[in-house]
Amino acid sequence: MTKPAPGYFLGGLAGVLLAGQAWAADLTGDWVFQAAPSFPGFTRMAIRRDADGLHGTITSQWYGDLPMLDLKTVGAGAGDGLVFHIDNGNPKLKPYDLTVAPDGQGVKLTGQVWYEKQEAPAHRATAAEMAALDFPTYPLPAPAHVPSNGLARTPPMGWSSWNKFAEAIDDTTVRQIADALVRSGLRDAGYVYVNIDDGWQGERGADGVLRPNAKFPDMKALADYIHARGLKLGIYSSPGPKTCAGYTGSYGHVEQDARTWAEWGVDYLKYDLCSGEGFYHTAETVQATYQQMGAALVATGRPIVYSLCEYGRFDVGAWGREVGGNLWRTTGDIEDSYASMAAIGFDRNGVPRHTGPGGWNDPDMLEVGNGGMGVEEYRTHISLWAMMAAPLLMGNDARSMTRETLALLGNAEVIAVDQDPLGHQGLPVRKRDGTEVWTRPLADGSVAVGLFNRTDKPVTMSADWPALGLGDHPRVRDLWAHRSVAPDTAPTVPAHGVVLLRATR
Predict the structure, then answer these.
(1) pTM, whole model, 2 decimals?
(2) Taking the CA of residue 491 as centre, how many other CA atoms within 13 Å lie in the half-sphere pointing to its CB?
(3) 463 lies in a domain?
């Protein structure tokens, strides 16, 4: 997915409970919040004092029971207030200040959690009130191997809704996108998955079955529409209670959701950690929760490509296949800028030995056609992803592509590099003064060679063919110019641009 929506990063919270010494002592006990902001949806707070000092827990609808770490009194006097920190397992974010202060007969929580302002009154709670807000916990499976589904023998190709539409996606738009893929020829070029990212989910019924929201009146009918056009339908969820955009996740309903999606006719699942990081923030728990869904998908009997989106944590490529995964994100979300794309493509593209038929490093979706980069930068974007054997998931509005965008996305010779059945990930063999030469061995014995210019001025570049094992006079084809070139040619590579070659000894 995915924008960094509420809950995608919580990192830490810090709070100060301000008042006099007598008031601080009176904070021990149970509290229930009223009308708290939906993110992170605080519901209750429990504070205890024992021989070891103060201890507390605050409960969130997104992250469950969160301990108040380092809870202690602060201020000029010994009891002028209480300070605490709450951590959901994401170490990248600075703490935020929260304040709980007297408010009539109760208290009021104010402050900020990530970018969401907080203002929530709370009253002292009975045992029954606290029990009614118990956050459910569920066991994770013991480590086990999930058998391969046999899918994604080459990197998946298709379209995903998030980069262009975020959560503002609906049934009509998805159908129109499917028609555009057919009409433009991109389906026949290999872009067959039509993936609905975050924003489709409604609520669960009394039977626990998750319904789509009003924007998607009939998922089975939508899947039938997609399939009738020779395409496949993808969907999105999270192992946590909430998705990144705050919709219903699969927490506590993993197997049930997998069966529902299979009944609808879903062909692809993107499983985004999101609020799950509040529960699963160690290597063992993250692997276990992805294993749980992997096994659930296999148990449905329907072939469903499984995309692991946990931002490259815990060396995911080393165990992604073990949990049934077909692709795994190597990084956080891409943005439609050269800086973001280049940082991911050149520097955070996963461990090459993890990539191969059935399982792929995923540096996130394509931004081509969204307007934040120039044509040479988008050409670099596609070329890098092809050299990495990365999934090619368009993120633009396929209904209104320019000829230029269509030519970039539909270049059959570049797609052939990405989809090469050998499945080796390309690597840089030379880095010098802002330029990089990458190579990727291909199944027919040829080698894809990328001449990348990361500087802001044109640069003349060349390949050392003997050093690449191709002799002095290989046959060379320029895949963007669609023509053969002399092996001793030293092309001028535009700023932020690329020359992508295929050379045969």
Answers:
(1) 0.92
(2) 24
(3) yes
What's the chain's length in residues?
Answer: 505
Question: Out of 257, 267, 272, 418, which one is annotated catalytic?
Answer: 272
Domain boundary among 383, 418, 453: 418
pLDDT tens digit sequence for 12-50: 444 444 333 344 447 789 999 999 999 999 999 998 989
Q: Catalytic site residue 333?
A: yes
Exposed e or buried b for every residue in 116-138, given b needs 16+ CB within 10 A? eebebbbbebeeeebeeeebeee
For the chain, what is the domain count?
Answer: 3
Of the candidates 388, 430, 503, the one whose C-alpha atom is nearest the C-alpha of residue 154 is: 388
Residue among 11, 7, 6, 5 nearest 93 (CA): 11
Q: What is the pLDDT of residues 169-179, one digit of tens each?
A: 999 999 999 99
Q: Specify whether 272 is catalytic.
A: yes
Q: CA 213, CA 350: separation in Å to the nearest integer?
A: 35
Q: What is the 8-class DSSP label of residue 21?
A: H
The backbone torsions φ and ψ at residue 107, rounded to the nearest 5 degrees and listed phi first, read: -135, 165
Annotated active-site residue in 87, 170, 257, 333: 333
Domain contains 147: no
Residue 6 lies in a domain: no
Residue 142 lies in a domain: no
Give the domain extent around 116.
Answer: 12-132
